[in-house]
């Protein structure tokens, strides 16, 4: 995507993985708006304080971030693109220290979990949960903390001028997070040549309905790359399905959507954009 003068809302602070995606996608000219929570991020978009947002949706190890699907749906956000970021955790600290001098490591609970095996070799180090990866790096920088290290991305070490004591310390090296580029739903034109669709499907509560819908997709050559269910709050035991579809022919996609709607099912298109995942 080309660099723009966007106001981009991210979850976390400068130096975080969201920040890294925003900078790569929109360039150094974009204004980055830091948000402590995903709810705050969405609010900045809906109130048009931000023109666009970067929202993590799923991780190859931890799976889907379910509350973010609900946030997008309830606030009518539109997905305009996606970004797959390899997550590489670095152990970083105030300059001039060795890993033997570190007594405490702070980070987001998920980062600590993903790096747990590494610290088995350093039983003297205490692991402490914190709200965000980059925020710990920022605290170390501002307070010049010694004996304390952070687990965060390389951009955090560069931004807050910390030494990397150990690189790629995550247990599973193939760790990728999928981020979506989201904006307030307006009359939007899909990405030119789009071949991926995110949608919300509410099916008729009849025996075999989901199987029939999936069969329609299969017959029309749609590749279902993701399906995630969430309960419909005001209808007990009813479920909405958030689905990602990839296709080669636009006509196949259009035919399938028409057939599903003709069968009485409800479809809400949440985004039409280009697939960027490398097989």
In words, what does this structure look like?
The protein is an alpha/beta fold. 27% of the residues lie in helices and 33% in strands. The protein contains 8 helices and 15 strands. Strands 1, 2, 3, 4, 5 and 11 form a 6-stranded mixed beta sheet that branches. The protein has a 5-stranded mixed beta sheet with strand order 8-7-9-6-10. Strands 13-14-12-15 form a 4-stranded antiparallel beta sheet, sandwiched between helices. Helix 7 runs antiparallel to helix 8 (250-262). The longest helix is centred in the C-terminal third of the chain and has 13 residues, at 250-262. It is elongated and about 65 Å long. The mean pLDDT is 92.
Outline the secondary-structure elements.
Blueprint (H helix, E strand, L loop, with lengths): L6 E5 L5 H10 L4 E5 L2 H9 L5 E8 L3 E2 L1 H9 L2 E10 L3 E4 L10 E4 L1 H6 L11 E4 L3 H11 L4 E5 L1 H6 L3 E4 L9 E9 L11 E7 L6 H11 L3 E9 L7 E8 L3 H13 L3 E8 L6
Parallel strand pairs: 1-2, 1-3, 7-8, 7-9
Antiparallel strand pairs: 3-4, 3-11, 5-11, 6-9, 6-10, 12-14, 12-15, 13-14
Beta-strand percent range? 25-35%
Shape estimate: elongated
- The radius of gyration computed from the alpha-carbon positions, rounded to a whole number of angstroms, is 21 Å
Topology-level CATH name of the largest domain: D-Maltodextrin-Binding Protein, domain 2
Distance between the termini: 20 Å
Helix content bin: 25-40%
> Major beta sheet, specifics?
6 strands, mixed
CATH architecture descriptor text of the largest domain: 3-Layer(aba) Sandwich
The count of β-strands is 15
SSE arrangement, N to C: EHEHEEHEEEHEHEHEEEHEEHE
The count of domains is 3
* CATH hierarchy class name of the largest domain: Alpha Beta
Oligomeric status: single chain
Nearest-integer average pLDDT = 92
Structural class: alpha/beta
CATH homologous superfamily name of the largest domain?
Periplasmic binding protein-like II
Low-confidence stretches: none
State the helix count.
8
